[in-house]
RNA sequence: GGCUGCGUGGUCGAGUGGUGAGGCAGAGGCCUGCAAAGCCUCCGACGCGGGUUCGAGUCCCGCCGCAGCCA
């Protein structure tokens, strides 16, 4: 099995990944709050973990991938104040909260399918786990780590730390500093300490989503659902927890506190955080007007976009950077990605029809063998080094060059030998399709039509009817395809 | 203001003590009816100022800029 190293936010180091119960891997990723169309930044996060799951499975692990949907409890202030995000949308659009949830859940699934994401093993919802959350609150109160105040229940951070825990470790925050910073703030109200966070909130009379509890009608705090659902399906301690960088504090910090408080064990062994997106060097935000939706990207319908970019182009584009780096969206970068993506896909098409040809007259060329071996091993080394898809892709380009050389008969399969040839073929196809999740975007039913046109082209070409030849070329071009006139054959490819 | 991370060639983007990233763009060549595709060759960088080292894009200090979280 490959040895994968993962950057653990908790230790700020790359660590060798060792699962608790091999060959099983438990992975939990914070899913979206379904109150609006899915944000491109979220897409990047889920893509990171999509590739992680794919790679784990490829190297022989059995993954249980849990990605939740937040459908209650996430407030507009991202803290304990403000309106429920879903409740707010329901009020504005005069719909049932669950109508909002369903609408944006559907959108979320649709978008992810376009990007060729694997479905999670379990996709639990917060409202589906109210009972578990109430039980968790009770347990935390029993343990002296939480207290009721005016119908709400809060986690007692000071008590938690007095018991030898370290609230703030994940995000590099010092409790004393946090206390100093927040001391003079008013609005503490029901809390003993301004840093304490809500486990259960009392519902105001006009609050739409509420459930009965030992503390009256209310709803769960945002952080609690992830603790309950992750430990329910993956155990009190599990392998990996992922999410966007923005969730490190306070969300994930609170999850650690809740999980540790409940089960006396650190809930997560490896914390992984993916970085943010920028647009033309600036952060992507609605107020700056530079935030576009996946659908706008596919349609090219945003004023900052010069053209449409297909889902696979965007997928390839995102994977060309390492997940812990910020990634900048711009037209030039996306156009470059489109060309690069098509180059890889053309290689895939060629390779599919390529068979090994034995040739006694040709001996194995060590230099050729080494080039292929280096590319294959390099691709794995990239993935093993904290999921460095950028490095893996660089080696795929080395492979596509070799594929083209074989196709152009500049290199003979026998120069590689059957074993190395097969290794090249398998690795290339596996990396693109299975690990990176990149697939051809085409309509296969049109292929006979393409072949028919190509026959006509051949005929005109041999008759030197160049006006007809050029005409057919232009038809291909209009459809994003190019005709390739080679010494030994005539073929087509995606226009890059 | 605090914490965390980043700043690489025309552009996007890997690398993190000792000649190679890679994609896109650009230049030349092979091929071609002309092209395109492909192949070969080339061009070229490490925010600014100090320091450590035989040697730094890579480590340390300061500054500037960008991003995330907190206030």
TrEMBL record:
Binds 1 zinc ion per subunit. GO terms for molecular function: ATP binding; cysteine-tRNA ligase activity; zinc ion binding. Keywords: Aminoacyl-tRNA synthetase, ATP-binding, Cytoplasm, Ligase, Metal-binding, Nucleotide-binding, Protein biosynthesis, Zinc. It is found in: Cytoplasm. SUPFAM superfamilies: Anticodon-binding domain of a subclass of class I aminoacyl-tRNA synthetases, Nucleotidylyl transferase. The keyword Nucleus does not apply. Zn(2+) binds at residues 30, 226, 251, 255. Its main location: cytoplasm. A motif ('KMSKS' region) lies at residues 283-287. Residues 378-447 form the Cysteinyl-tRNA synthetase class Ia DALR domain. Its cofactor is Zn(2+). Its EC number is 6.1.1.16. One of its GO terms (cellular component) is cytosol. It catalyses: tRNA(Cys) + L-cysteine + ATP = L-cysteinyl-tRNA(Cys) + AMP + diphosphate. InterPro entries: Cys-tRNA-ligase (IPR015803), Cys-tRNA-synt_Ia_DALR (IPR015273), Cys-tRNA/MSH_ligase (IPR024909), Rossmann-like_a/b/a_fold (IPR014729), tRNA-synt_1_cat_dom (IPR032678), tRNAsynth_Ia_anticodon-bd (IPR009080). ATP binds at residue 286. Pfam families: DALR_2 (PF09190), tRNA-synt_1e (PF01406). A motif ('HIGH' region) lies at residues 32-42. GO terms for biological process: cysteinyl-tRNA aminoacylation. Belongs to the class-I aminoacyl-tRNA synthetase family. Monomer. This is Cysteine--tRNA ligase. It comes from Siphonobacter aquaeclarae.
